[in-house]
Structure formats: C-alpha cells, structure tokens
Amino acid sequence: MKRLGTLAAAAALGALACLSAAGARSPKGGPRLALFAELPVLHEGRVKPLETVARSSLLILRGKQSISSRSRSLSPIEWLLDVLARPQLADEYPSLRVDDPELLSALGLSDASGRYYAFSQLAPAFKTLEDLSGQAESLDPSDRTRVQSAAMNLYGRVVLYQRLKNTLRPAQAAAFAGEAAAAAGGAAALKSGPPLQQRLAGWSFLAQMAVFRPLPPSPGARPDDWRSIGEALLEAHAGTLHPGLLPLSELADAWRAGDAAAFDRALGRHAAFARSAVPRQMRAARWEAAFQRAQPFTVGMTLYLLAGLLVMAGWLMERKGLERAAYAALAGAVAVHTAGLLARMLIEGRPPVTNLYSSAVFVGWVGGIVGVWQEKRSGGGLAAAAASVLGFCTLIIAHHLSAQGDTMEMMRAVLDSNFWLTTHVVTITMGYGSAFLAGTLAHVYLLRGALTRSLDKESAKRLVQMTYFAVCLSLFFSFVGTVLGGIWADQSWGRFWGWDPKENGALLIVLWLAIVLHARWGGFVRERGLMAMAVFGNVVTALSWFGVNMLGIGLHSYGFTEATLLWLVGFILAEFAVMCLAAIPPERWRSPQVFA
Amino acid sequence: MGPLASLELTIGSLAALMLLVALCTLGQVKLGLYGSVDTYIRSLLVWAEVPGTSLRVPVFPGGALVGVILLLNLTAAQFMRLEWSRRKAGLWLVHLGLALLFAGEFSTGFFQRDDRMVLSEGATRSWVESPRDLELAVIDATDKGFDTVYSVPERVYSKKRSIEQEAWPFSLLVKRYLPSARIEMRQSVEGGPASMATAGLGPSLVALELRRSRKDDAPEEPALFVEAVSGDRSYGTWLLSTALGGPDPGLGAEQGLTLDGRQWRFALRHRRRYLPFSLTLKRFTHESHPGTDIPRVFSSLVRLSDPARHEDRDVLISMNRPLRYGGQAFYQAGFENNDTVSILQVVKNPGWLLPYLSCVLVGLGLLIHFAGHFWPAKTTQAPSKGAGARS
C-alpha cells in the first residue's frame, strides 16, 4: 500500500508538470505568448508575471480564470493582450460578469443574454451605472441595498477594465510607437502631430490609469523603482529614455496590427533587457507563470473528488481494490496539494498562511496529510474518505475566496512578520484543520453507521480512535496557536488578550475541545456522543474561521460577503442534521452491529 | 470539597465561559469592545434589565466569577482527584499553565494601565494619557519651572455637586455635566441656548448635548460647566471640554483665573500619568508598498532621556518592536496629521510574562500527555483509561 501511494504521488506530480508545460507551448508559427506571459511587472506592490495579472484580472472581472468568445476559447494571456493592445476586439469579449437581475434591469439590459457581458454591451448604460454607484458611495456600507452594492461593485470592475485598456498604450491611438519615439526625440520630433500640451496630458493620463508597471528598474536604480508606460513617456520627454519603452510600444502596436513576427522581435528585445536588468525576478516570474498554468489546487481538487468517490464505491460494492485505488488517488491529491503549497511559499517567500484564501488551502492540506497518515496506519478507507471530503471542500472554498484577485497580496505592516505568521497563524490553522478532520471522521461514523449497513464494529472502533486523536491534536494546536496569537498581540500592540472577535473565536474552539475531552474522560459521553460533539466542533470552527468576519468589527475582519453568510447558515443547519443521527437509538441504526 | 473538584463543574464552567465569550463577541456590535468586555467578562455577574422597568437583575454568572470557579475547580481537582504519578505529569503541567493564564488575565484586569503618547515631530513628552478615562485637572501654574496638578476623576465630577481641596482658595461647583457634547462657535449656531459660562472661552461657544454612543471608533467629547466660588463670591463659570484640548499656553491662559498672586488653570482632559523620563520624537516614517496604499512600515525614531538613570539614547519603535523601559512598554499604534504625529500605545502590566510561561507549560504538558497516550500504546489507544482519573 505504501508503494502504491508513492507511485500515485509521483504520477500526479509528473502529470502536473506536463500540464504546465503543455499550457506554456504556443501554437506553431504563432507569436511567443508563453514568453510574454512570463514577463515580470510590478502590480499591487508585488513583482509578478503577466500570467498572474491576466488570471487575477479575469477572476475579478468575471469570477473565472477562463474566457471564450464566439466559441473560440482564449487563454488568459491572449485575453489580456487583446485588452491591453487590441481593445476594439476585446470590448466584444464577454469579460464582465453581472449577476444581479435587478441591476441588469436598472441598466436597461435584459438578463436573457446570460451572466457575462461585453464592455460594448454595457457601454450605453455607463451613465446610469455611474449615477447608481455614486449614490451608493455616499452611504454607509451597511445601509446600501443589494442593487446599490452590486452597482458599486460593477462600476469598480468597469473602471479596472478601462484602466487595463490604458496601461500599455492609449486605448484610442491607432499607432503608438511613433508617439514614444517622438517623446524621446526631443523638440524636433514633436513639431509634427498634436500640440505638446495635448501630448503631455495624454502621457499623464496613461501614468494615472496604469494597472501595472511593466518597465523594470534600470541597473543602479532602487529595486522597487518600476515605471509605467506613461511615466516613462514623461521621463523620455525630460531627457531619460527607458530602454524598455520603445520595444514595449512596438510590441503593443504589432499585436494591434496582428503582425506576429514584429511582435516576437519587439518581445525578444524587451525580454533581453529585462533579463539583464532584473535577472532574479525574471526567473521567479517564470516559475510563477508555470505555477499559475499548472493550477495544482484545481488538479488536487479533482483527485480528492476521485478518491472520495472511489472509497464510497468500495464500501457499497465491498471491493477492497477500490479502497486501495482510493488511497492511491488520495496520496496523489495530497502530493499535488503539497507541491502547490510549497510553490506558493517559495514564490511569496512567506509561510503557508498569509490570508483567508491560503488558510483554506492549508486547512485542507492538514486534513489531507493527517488523513493519509491515519489511512496508512489503519486502512479501511475510513480516514481516506474523511480526508478526501475535507480536501475537496476546502479547495472549493479556497477557489471561491480567490475571486478577489491575486491571492499573494502584500502584507500590511502589522502582519509583516514571518516569525509570527509561522508560529501563530500556521499553528492555529493546523488547529482548524485537525478540528475539521475530527468532525469529518465523525460524519463518516454517523452517516455510514446510521444510514448504511456497511459499518462494522472494527471500523467503528477505529473511527472513534481516529476522531479522538484528531480532537487531541486540534486542542494542542488551537491552544498553543491561540496563546501565541496573544503573545504576538502583546508584542505588537501591548495587550495579550483584547477579546477581539477572532481571538474569541479561537478561544471558543479551545473551550469546546476541552469540554469534549473532559466529557469523554468523565465518561459522560460514549462513542456516539463523542461523534456528535466532534461534528459540533465543525460548527464552532467554521464560525471562528468565517463567522467573525461578518460582524464587521475588530482587527481581523476581512473579506466577507453576503453569499458567505448563506453558505455558513446552510452548513450549520446540515451539521445539526448530522448531529441528530447520533440521537437515533442504536437499534434503529442501519448498522446496529456497531453496538453489539 | 467533592463537588468542587468534580468534572461536572469543570464542564459546566467551560460551557458557561463559552456562552459568555460568544455573547461578548456578539455584544461588541452594540456595546463596543470595552462595554461588552465589562458586561460579560470583567464582571462577577451579568445584569439585565427587566423589560418595561428600569430594574436590573443578575441573570448569569460573569466571566470573573466563572474564572474564579474554574481556578478553584482546577486546584481542587489537582489535589483531590489526579494521582501524582508520572503518567499524569503532562496534566499537572497543563493545569499549572492554565492557572498561570487565569492569574495573568486577572492581573491584566486589575493592574494593567493602558495609555497613549501622542508625539508630533520634535516634541518631547514626559507624560502619557489614558484614551478613555478623563480627569478634571486643576493646575497651579504659578511656578515657571513646574506645575502642581490636582486631578479630579470622572466618577467625582460626574456625580458630586461641589468639589473642595485644602490647597485651593476656592471650591468648584459642577453646574452642568454633558457626557457627550459637540462644541460650536456661537456665531455659527443660530438661536443657540444662552451659555452658562461667564469666563474663559465659554461665552463665545455653544455646547450641544449629543446622544451617547458607545462606538469604539467615535470617542465621545464630554463637556462640563464649573463655577469657582469662595463663600458667597463667584469668580466665574467656565466651559471645559476635551474638545477644547489644553491647557496649552494660548487657550489655557483664558481657562483659569489669577487669585492672590497664584495662577490657576482648569481643563477637562484625558487622564495623564507622569513618567520619570521623557521621549522626544525625532522622525516618524510611514512607507507603503509601491503602487498601493498598503502600509509597509511604520516606525518612530525617538530619543529616550532619563536624567536620574543617566540614560540618553535613540530608540527605533516599529510595528512588532516595542520599547520596554521603566516597567512599561511603548508600541507603535498609529499616526495622524499627514505623517507628522506618531501615536504610541503605552502599557504597564506587571503580569505580562505570565502568558508566555503559561504557553510553554500547557504546550509541553499537552504534548507529554498526548504523546504518552498515543505513541507507546499502539494497542491501548482507547480513551477509556481516562475514566480511572475520576474517582
């Protein structure tokens, strides 16, 4: 079984590498899009490849990393290039998602054409949208109606799209490289064409609109001294020509004209300059682009799903082979998950958990790794089932949390401490992970025992042991993590414990787990009671993890939406339903042999 | 002693504490952080109003009471129930660590002083002020070298009508106290109420009473009308408010009187605590990540000067790097006024080390206990052994 797992893990990693390489290949004879996607730019305070910019912009604008137009599917980087350099085409792509039917009717659009809209479809409604959003802006966030929030949100995304169009070249200009050359050419070159005042205003506009800065710092400049195209134009006019300005403007013109050869030539010149100016970032961006294309967490999610289905099929059909296959799939999923996690850590130079998104990824990983270990020790597909369900669910949650854009955002000053991120944040998230694992194992026990005939006495006993172990593990990590959080707070703002909602949430987990263990030690609960309590642990942990964000107070309130609330309420109700199974008398269970 | 050491009591208290923590979290939306903590956690009993009356009755034990019960329960269990064997060594450590943690929280509740120091660049301060507690300061500013400050706490001036002090040649009558007020220039408010004030800045101002809000992010500005009298003679009525600041030299001179050659100043201000040393802000630095508003660094370069201990040196205080000196710690908490003013949080908590100790003890204890439970015993993992601890 051990060899099978190792083999599966190796196979999964190999597949991932192939996937990434396949995504990087450009069509034969076409422009070298893969190289363009690897170019580093400064975006939201971090140097990253254009691949990441393309994907996170797509996520913000349309909630998905993929797009297709007229039945042709576009890669994220093609989409970005069209928005940057060929907006007349990009404006027809369904780049913006509008969900709210009331907002659609307020904008005079019919919701018959689906959820995705092209910029050109929305254009007639801009004035109305701006008014709606302006009204909403003056209100307190809690006083806004749903339509008003949706209008503000859409308006912000339209502005982002407009800014993207004016980042690499002015959206309107037919030919731009001449403008850049003129800026560098001095007074003589500026004689023909529009008056200087108008040109300067245009360049400043570009500098203001820029979403990212594509020009690396020249050798000798400060390492974070990246330039936008607009800034470089103004500087060129003042006498300093940035070596990347002309190649990039030629590249943009070539893409607009559909001239692949000219595009490749300009790209080659810019890449050569970038390699000499920022060799380290160039290499890092290449890695990150490969990571983005490989999408390890999506692959992992699929493998977790496969493992879960296999193990359940194995129980129903009573085939040991399926259980072994499930274990192999789980090992593969955990290997891919681990690879993704490590890649993120390397790219970011940070511990694994830095925000809500990465906490979801990490919770699933803790569950997965402990689950694989438990499965190896006791077999039977029990821990494999729990770990694959947990891994799948947390990666789904992470996927939805990633819709806010780049998930490797920069850290605020107060959080910017790798020491405390490693000790407190990682520890407490391990506590969450093992609490969820205990809860998920308890689901296996209750659902399988009460609703199917397949749970035998031996498996039930092992499930109790594994759940008990996960509860102990979680208490250890939650307690240490919570107290370390207090110590961090003492270090950074002078109070150990401030009764902040997130701190209270962590404390609630610790208290609940302590109750569970004391109740077990005192003999107040037996197997079913322990399981019901572990399921309730899921509720407490979920509330601590997400619930406190909805209070909108405290230092830790971040990233909460109305949809999250609905999901949370649904989850809690479902957990209560599962807990009720424990209250069914043993003789009414479909697997009464558990209590024999 | 039996029931005191029982596991039932442990579980009941832990459940009560869970409920209190949950209520304290939800209560913060309405009561604000401090209000909620005072109601549910730092209290012996939780009080509630009987609907329709103003009668308040205790409805639930408060956090402090539950904490004491848990501490007693823990101690009793340790001595009466748990055997002193190596097998239980992990649990002793856990319980000792928990006791320290409780002790630390009680020590914080009773002894911690939370103040702040607001420093503009170039300024020197040898005092800190409380962000929440206020004082009516009566200052004898006759001497050029030092001030003599008499501090009247809020619970006195908000309740008492007349305040006397031996050293004062007058007594102060509290004529009106507004817990939350907005101060406006008289000419900008049409038909404002006639002012009670007859001296100082008051006659040209209007104090408008506001409804009390207990939001943490919108601090209240109270106002106070006080009259200085001696026998039958009145020296005038002053309007004092935290909104007026002071007493800095310009305004402060008007908010007071000269009597028998002594200069007296009045101010309603955040309660000050004087330090035997001073800090001077040399430079405040605030940097963002390039191309964003996300702050990257806040730091204050200060000069610490303590003549009595011959200390005179530069210190860089930044996020996660406080200055610990003279039994207190100075933390970078905020900034204002276009990055020229730095706000330091100043905390004095004699029990600050207890949680550190506790964390180590409990972590180690849990590790020993669980390791002993799971590892040597691949065959005896069943938790039923734990029942033996209950006798």
Outline of this structure?
The complex is a heterodimer of chains A (596) and B (391). Chain A is mainly alpha-helical and 596 residues long. Chain A has 24 helices and 7 strands.
Label this structure with key terms.
heterodimer; A: 596 residues; mainly alpha; Four Helix Bundle (Hemerythrin (Met), subunit A); three-stranded antiparallel sheet; two-stranded antiparallel sheet; elongated; B: 391 residues; alpha+beta; 3 domains; six-stranded antiparallel sheet; four-stranded antiparallel sheet; 27% helix; 38% strand; globular
Account of the protein in words:
The complex is a heterodimer of chains A (596) and B (391). In chain A, α1 crosses α15, α3 (50-62) packs across α15 (279-294) and α15 packs antiparallel against α17 (320-348). Chain A has a 3-stranded antiparallel beta sheet. A two-stranded antiparallel ribbon of chain A has the order 3-4. In chain A, a hairpin with a 2-residue loop joins β3 (67-69) and β4 (72-74). Chain A is 68% helix and 3% strand. Chain A has helices at residues 2-24, 33-37, 50-62, 76-85, 87-90, 101-106, 119-122, 126-137, 146-165, 177-185, 196-209, 229-238, 245-257, 260-277, 279-294, 296-317, 320-348, 356-378, 382-401, 418-451, 457-493, 501-521, 527-545, 562-583; strands at residues 40-43, 46-49, 67-69, 72-74, 96-97, 116-117, 212-213. The model of chain A is unreliable at 553-560 (pLDDT under 50). Chain A contains 24 helices and 7 strands. By secondary structure, chain B is an alpha+beta fold. Chain B is 27% helix and 38% strand. Chain B contains 6 helices and 18 strands. In chain B, α1 packs antiparallel against α2 (63-80), α2 (63-80) runs antiparallel to α3 (89-111) and α3 (89-111) packs antiparallel against α6. Chains A and B meet through β7, α21 and α22 of A and α1, α3, β14, β17 and β18 of B.
